[in-house]
């Protein structure tokens, strides 16, 4: 498990080691939907998940 | 066997598929399409994959990336035509009707006047939908002429030209549920009832779910609807009327299955991979 910072509440979020860029996580403490991304230096960080757009679905 | 999964975001479903490919012992290549351009004029380095599963949550990303891969000779599941025809409710309905699959009575209208003509024929309540979209968004039920005109007025103020195409449909007075069945290459591995006190029973809107046991007539209907839409891996929605008739409501080409796995305990992700591999081995 990796520990990353929640960009919304600043709390800690545990992420499995095999998590992928684009993977969604809910931060249970604050309820935010977060998405894992890799920055330019190859470091993992969390950002607020993309907003649902008109063409999203099944 | 080398298997690719194309995605934009990883939901529960994509994680389950990734784990299933690994568990089954195939080589897995992940294609995160937001990170890299897709070349049209040169290869993208995935041309040697045996099968690629399309799992983008965005319809346009799914359709465009499938077009590129397919034209470069890659086998994509579901294929371009299936994704296109299922996303477009108009086209889904037309294809089903042409093949004698029961669907609610439906028309499209571009103006209020012609909507009124449809209402006169079908009566109220009437369901008004956009031809694109999912998760029950922008789907309304007009109980009478006044509420229909109000719904149309809202839609006319929307930016998107698609929302100005009104897909009008007979309201099926179903019990407090509809059926979501899965179709994997000619088989129906699982189905659930989506139960809600609201007439919209999308789980995205909070419906609860329960395993559904399907009779032979329903299984036959689902298999036929799946074939008509081009086969592959599909989520097929069925409405039951009070007088015991079944109607196909819509077909989903990149279905979500988290809730179905939760209540049926079936490993749908592994089945999706295995059934597809078997299908193309033949
Ligand atoms: N003609 C109809 N009569 C009665 N109920 C309907 C009718 N059409 C749709 N519904 C109900 O409305 C809800 C949304 O409909 P539909 O499945 O067409 O929407 P959607 O946005 O494409 O959803 P999704 O793709 O996520 O399944 C469903 O619960 C369905 O049972
Ligand atoms: Zn948080």
Write the layout of secondary structure elements.
The complex is a heterodimer of chains A (58) and B (282).
Chain A: E1 2-5, E2 12-15, E3 24-27, E4 32-38, E5 44-48
Antiparallel strand pairs in A: 1-2, 3-4, 4-5
Chain B: E1 2-7, H1 12-23, E2 27-32, E3 51-54, H2 59-71, E4 76-77, H3 80-87, H4 89-98, E5 106-109, H5 112-122, E6 126-129, E7 140-142, H6 145-156, E8 166-170, E9 177-184, E10 191-195, E11 208-211, H7 216-228, E12 233-240, E13 246-252, H8 258-264, H9 268-281
Parallel strand pairs in B: 1-2, 1-3, 3-4
Antiparallel strand pairs in B: 5-8, 6-7, 6-8, 9-10, 9-12, 10-11, 12-13
Helix pairs in contact in B: 1-9, 2-3
Adenosine-5'-triphosphate binds at residues 104, 127, 129, 133-137, 139, 169-172, 174, 178, 199-202, 237, 239, 249-250, 252 of chain B.
Structural notes for this entry:
The complex is a heterodimer of chains A (58) and B (282). A 3-stranded antiparallel β-sheet of chain A has the order 3-4-5, with no helix packed on it. Chain A has no helices and 5 strands. Chain A has strands at residues 2-5, 12-15, 24-27, 32-38, 44-48. Chain B folds into 3 domains: 2-77, Rossmann fold (3-Layer(aba) Sandwich); 106-170, Dna Ligase, domain 1, CATH 3.30.1490.20; 173-275, ATP-grasp fold, B domain (D-amino Acid Aminotransferase, Chain A, domain 1, 2-Layer Sandwich). Chain B has 9 helices and 13 strands. In chain B, the strands form 3 sheets. Chain B has a 5-stranded antiparallel β-sheet, with helices on both faces. In chain B, strands 2-1-3-4 form a 4-stranded parallel β-sheet, sandwiched between helices. In chain B, a hairpin with a 6-residue loop joins strand 9 and strand 10 (191-195). Chain B is globular, with a radius of gyration of 20 Å. The mean pLDDT of chain B is 96. At the A-B interface, loops of A face loops of B. Bound molecules: adenosine-5'-triphosphate and zinc ion. The site of zinc ion (ZN) has 8 residues of chain A, from loops.
